[in-house]
Amino acid sequence: MPQSVRQSIGPSHLIAILLTAGISPAAAQQSETYRLAGARVAIYNLVGSARLEPGTGSDIVVEVRRGGADAAKLSVRTPQPSGGRSREMLGIVYPEDDIVYEPLGRGSRTTVQVGDYGEFDDSNDDDEHDWEDRRVTITGDGDGLHAHADLRILVPRGRDLKLHLAAGRVMVSNVKGTLKVETGAGEIEATGVRGRLALATGTGSVQASGFEGTELSIETGSGAVEASSLRGSDISVETGSGDISLAGVTAPRLSLSTGSGSITSDLGADTRDVSVETGSGNVTLRAAASLSAQLDIETGSGGIESDFPVAVTRHANDHMEGRIGDGRGRISVETGSGEVRLVRR
Q: What is the DSSP-derived secondary structure letter of residue 336?
């Protein structure tokens, strides 16, 4: 096991190290600050981390800290809304078509279509873009532009913000507003968000806690989702591949889906519409003794167990319909391969 080594480096030695790496001391130590006054804002950055925190005043404040041997080659664009672009935006512009971001790891590779202002393709965006024919490839090693930008974004209460990363980790804490956060490759962690929240990552896990608001949407292409203390009107979680685990859920509508993975979730007392689907994996739903719902459970291969008395209206090897209590709510569960358990907590 490698040993941890602590060494004090003097200012002159630090400058020499930075110059040897091709990084100016000013670029490595200083951040640039930008203010966005629009009611609706979009921020684009191909590679780097992002932290979203509460802000004061009326502007969204973006602190940009460049990194990497080629950090000085990056530029920041802040065009005003025009044409099909309805949001004020900030984009980090990477001048070359091959970017190396070592935190991705060796062998990783992704390709993104990029516009003049640093914006890149987002099929779920509500703006219309006239994309230039410029494709950027991001890898974890090899030759290319060694540069990234780490962002600290201060969001005042009630703002509408979309953040798009092609690769990088995102942390959101205690922001109140409407947020949409997307990263192509990287983990997302969100705590204490109030309002409306959408989190999406192509590859990476998502952790969320302490959400309170209207809609919460979490999506991963490949990665697990773990969330707790969620209170909203509509909560949905979808993974292409990865387990879903929810605790402390209070929501009238709950939708959970994974192509491959297990699903475990609490059901709140006010939950009235539950839809759960997994292609391959077990499903466990935990609820209080007062649970009341119409049941429709289907499993291609696996058993069905319930701690609650069920008035069965239809039963086959792979399908059961029935009622728990007076049947005020609805629970629909479908699994291609896996057991379904209703657990009294």
A: S
Q: pLDDT by residue (tens digit) across 91-136?
A: 999 999 999 999 999 989 999 999 999 999 654 455 555 555 689 9
227 and 237 Cβ atoms separated by less than 8 Å: yes
Is residue 274 within 8 Å of residue 301, measured between CB atoms?
no
Q: Which letter does DSSP use for residue 124 in this model? A: T
Q: Are strands 50-54 and 148-155 parallel, antiparallel or unpaired?
A: parallel
Q: What is the DSSP string of 143-210?
A: SSB--EEEEEEEE-TTEEEEEEEEE--EEEES-EEEEEEEEEES-EEEES-EEEEEEEEEES-EEEEE
Burial label, 288 (beta-carbon count in 10 A; 0-12, 13-18, 19+): exposed
* Residue with the two structure tokens 């479908």: 334
Distance CA 181, CA 41 (A): 12
The reported pTM is: 0.89
Distance in angstroms (rounded) separating the CA atoms of residues 308 and 310: 6
Residue 182 near residue 173, CB atoms below 8 Å: no
pLDDT in tens, 17-60: 344 444 444 445 479 999 999 889 999 999 999 999 999 999 99
CA distance 204 to 287: 29
Other Cβ atoms closer than 10 A to 286: 18
3-state helix, strand, coil in the chain (%, to 5): 5, 55, 40
CA-CA distance, 186 to 204, in Å (whole number)? 5
Strand-strand pairing, 60-67 and 148-155: antiparallel
Backbone angles phi, psi at 167, to 5 degrees: -155, 125
